[in-house]
């Protein structure tokens, strides 16, 4: 009976809905506005109380395309697998030169972690999990190097998004290759058969293509060692840098996330590390793309991204909305849930 129930859940999970935008901009959370009486002091630990049960505020659903200048929403158009981003709305383009203080402070912290002198300060969430000391230091050193590279960017160069994000997919079948022990900064390994890693290759390739097309200056790869010793973020980094040619100092790593909602949360933290406001999430055409839409059958079983984040973190992750044209697997994302509301436009639980 249990197997039958699980099969029904798996079958239902393939069902999803991409909700069409209304004709007029909603003046509620779907349009980026906070509900009356929103209490930000309670939002990051008691979201349902902070929004006073406002139904629109209990979901990530958002229609940023109706107010692109305030949402900083930019479509990304695909011809086959080749992306081309539209110009960013006025005032939205990301320039690393505008965020030098943030980039340098974050790089300094990661350098301290890499050298084992982080002191009593808490680890950033993307490094605060059960990692080996070597793996944590390697990830921190990589992130420090990338943040410093961003700080050296030509101040005249801008991008529609601050980061491109992609998330790993773990499987027990991925174990048992030399990549189990590979870390960022290690030499590339010859003879690795990447076919066994399935959609991870698709996700890393799409993220690398978006980076190459100038969607964002940095690529965030996220995923922990969930099903084996292989760290999913390190696998994605290996594919992007060793096989596709993305420079290592253009990749930010989150080796701690264990599910899509923790991927989004941790990648949002790295978005803040760049000083950015919006990210472009890109994935494959299979399960995860449907999971990111406005509704999936998981809503029926308490397993949607919103339901899981409220249960596990006690707050929503932000807003996201499909932004890709030509594929169905690219999403605008911002941790600033009420992006159109001047009172709370900079509110986020992931700073």
Secondary structure: elements and pairs:
Layout (H helix, E strand, L loop, with lengths): L1 H12 L2 E2 L22 H4 L3 H4 L17 H4 L4 E4 L2 E4 L14 H15 L18 H19 L11 E5 L31 H14 L5 E5 L9 H13 L6 E4 L5 H15 L4 E4 L4 H5 L3 E2 L8 H8 L6 E4 L1 E2 L4 E5 L17
Parallel strand pairs: 2-10, 4-5, 4-7, 5-6
Antiparallel strand pairs: 1-8, 2-3, 7-11, 9-11
Helix pairs in contact: 5-6, 7-8
Q: What is the radius of gyration computed over CA atoms, rounded to a whole number of angstroms? A: 19 Å
Low-confidence stretches: 1-9
Query: Strand fraction band?
Result: 5-15%
Helical fraction equals 25-40%
**What spatial form do the alpha-carbon principal axes imply?**
globular
Q: How many separate helices? A: 11
- Average pLDDT score: 93
Q: Structural class, from secondary structure content? A: alpha/beta
The total count of strands amounts to: 11
- The tally of domains stands at 1
What does this structure look like?
The chain is α/β, with parallel strands linked by helices and 351 residues long. It has one domain (19-79, 93-334). Helices cover 32% and strands 12% of the residues. The protein has helices at 2-13, 40-43, 47-50, 68-71, 100-114, 133-151, 199-212, 232-244, 260-274, 287-291, 305-312; strands at 16-17, 76-79, 82-85, 163-167, 218-222, 251-254, 279-282, 295-296, 319-322, 324-325, 330-334. The strands form three sheets. It has a six-stranded mixed sheet, sandwiched between helices. It has a three-stranded mixed sheet with strand order 3-2-10, covered by helices on one side. Helix 5 (100-114) packs antiparallel against helix 6 (133-151) and helix 7 (199-212) crosses helix 8.
């Amino acid at each position: 009976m249990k197997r039958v129930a699980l099969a029904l859940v798996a079958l239902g999970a393939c069902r999803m809905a991409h909700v069409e935008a209304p004709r007029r901009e909603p003046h509620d959370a779907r349009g980026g506005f906070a509900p009356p009486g929103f209490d930000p002091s309670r939002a990051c630990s008691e979201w349902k109380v902070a929004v006073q049960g406002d139904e629109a505020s209990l979901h990530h659903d958002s229609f940023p395309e109706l107010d692109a200048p305030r949402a900083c929403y930019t479509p990304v158009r695909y011809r086959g697998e080749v992306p081309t981003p539209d110009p960013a709305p006025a005032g939205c383009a990301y320039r690393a030169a505008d965020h030098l203080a943030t980039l340098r402070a974050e790089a300094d912290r990661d350098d301290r972690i890499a050298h084992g002198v982080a002191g009593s300060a808490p680890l950033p969430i993307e490094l605060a999990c059960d990692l080996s000391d070597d793996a944590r230091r390697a990830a921190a050193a990589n992130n420090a190097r990338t943040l410093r590279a961003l700080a050296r960017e030509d101040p005249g160069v801008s991008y529609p998004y601050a980061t491109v994000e992609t998330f790993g997919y773990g499987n027990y079948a991925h174990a048992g290759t030399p990549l189990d022990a590979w870390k960022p900064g290690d030499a590339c390994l010859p003879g690795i058969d990447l076919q066994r890693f399935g959609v991870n290759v698709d996700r890393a390739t799409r993220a690398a293509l978006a980076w190459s097309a100038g969607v964002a200056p940095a690529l965030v790869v996220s995923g922990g060692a969930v099903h084996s010793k292989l760290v999913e973020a390190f696998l994605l980094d290996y594919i992007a840098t060793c096989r596709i040619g993305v420079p290592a100092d253009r990749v930010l790593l989150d080796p701690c996330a264990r599910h899509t909602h923790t991927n989004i949360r941790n990648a949002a933290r790295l978005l803040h590390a760049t000083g950015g406001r919006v990210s472009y999430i890109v994935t494959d055409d299979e399960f995860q793309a449907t999971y990111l839409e406005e509704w999936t059958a998981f809503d029926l079983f308490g397993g949607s991204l919103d339901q899981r984040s409220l249960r596990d973190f006690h707050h929503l992750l932000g807003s996201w909305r499909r932004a890709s044209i030509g594929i169905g697997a690219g999403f605008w994302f911002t941790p600033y849930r009420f992006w159109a509301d001047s009172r709370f436009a900079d509110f986020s639980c992931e700073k």
